[in-house]
Amino acid sequence: MGHIGRPKGKKVEELSVAPIYDWLEKQGLSSHLMSGKLKLLENLRFEEGENKCDPEYAKELAGLGEVYINEAFAAHHPAASTTILPTLLPAFAGLHFAREVEKLTKVRQAPRPGLVAIIGGVKAEDKLPAVLALSKIADYVLVGGKIVEELATRGSDANRGPVGLYPRPMSSLDAAGTRRGAPAPATPNNPSAPLSENITLASLNAEKTDITPETVEKWGPIIKKAKMIVWNGPLGKVEEPKNFRTHEIANLIISSGAESIIGGGDTISYLGKLGLLGKFGFISTGGGAMLEFLIRGTLPTIEALL
């Protein structure tokens, strides 16, 4: 059983598990599927009870098995199958789920000297808490993607909008990647304060679709000296071939030799198309879950297993 997409309690054909069923048959498991030894449930998000955390629906799911194993780290929001069902059966974390928690706990609680975080994406509201949390443990937090434009716009007036940041532009680094200046730091509880000196916003091209070559050049020495790199979110509109600076940053991370942890569906998809996924140390299956864990140190789905 699992989640696909966000159908909001309605059946959506393209979000069905039918292709997974077909794949299982091709693996020679038809007899197990027919006999009921192996059961594949339809996308749980088709069910209102799943999305509403209905205890009765969770009991129905509990009646289908004897042991619960959660291997879906990315599905971190409360749901009947992820936060109620584990309380009704003997429950355990799957192998990769446990590895995710182990790796991200290492980043959050015991980061190596030389930790560099790279955050990209579109919505500032989604990424800002992670940027601020990571700034407390990382030597540098390098921010790219469309969120730079949004943060810079809001930063022009501290009283405008819910974020109200004073961004640190690329001019805050010299050619060797050394920081200059020391503004009072923002925190998750006070995001309207100036950003910490170790947070640096990239420069964007004229179309605002990619970071600039100058950004790549100035980030290069920082990435080269890193011992551990955490990366979540593409740094430009990567679906357009002309925006290739994210590829350049990926190559810099790979050549640095640093321990690398990457996450986020768009990032993983892009690197997969480039054939680069195998060159990174650890791939987190959760984008939002990865950031939420780095911010809070736990998730509702983890609490349900305790």
From TrEMBL:
Q: Where is the composition biased (Low complexity)?
A: 175-194
Domain of life here?
A: Bacteria
Q: GO MF terms on file?
A: ADP binding; ATP binding; phosphoglycerate kinase activity
The protein's enzyme class = transferase
One Gene Ontology cellular component:
cytosol
InterPro entries the record matches: Phosphoglycerate_kinase (IPR001576), Phosphoglycerate_kinase_N (IPR015824), Phosphoglycerate_kinase_sf (IPR036043)
- Which reaction equation describes what this protein catalyses? (2R)-3-phosphoglycerate + ATP = (2R)-3-phospho-glyceroyl phosphate + ADP
**Entry keyword set:** ATP-binding, Kinase, Nucleotide-binding, Transferase
Q: Does the keyword Nucleotidyltransferase apply?
A: no
Q: Which PANTHER family match?
A: PHOSPHOGLYCERATE KINASE, PHOSPHOGLYCERATE KINASE 1, CHLOROPLASTIC-RELATED
Annotated family: Belongs to the phosphoglycerate kinase family.
- Name of this chain's protein: Phosphoglycerate kinase
Q: Which species does this protein come from?
A: Candidatus Daviesbacteria bacterium GW2011_GWB1_41_5
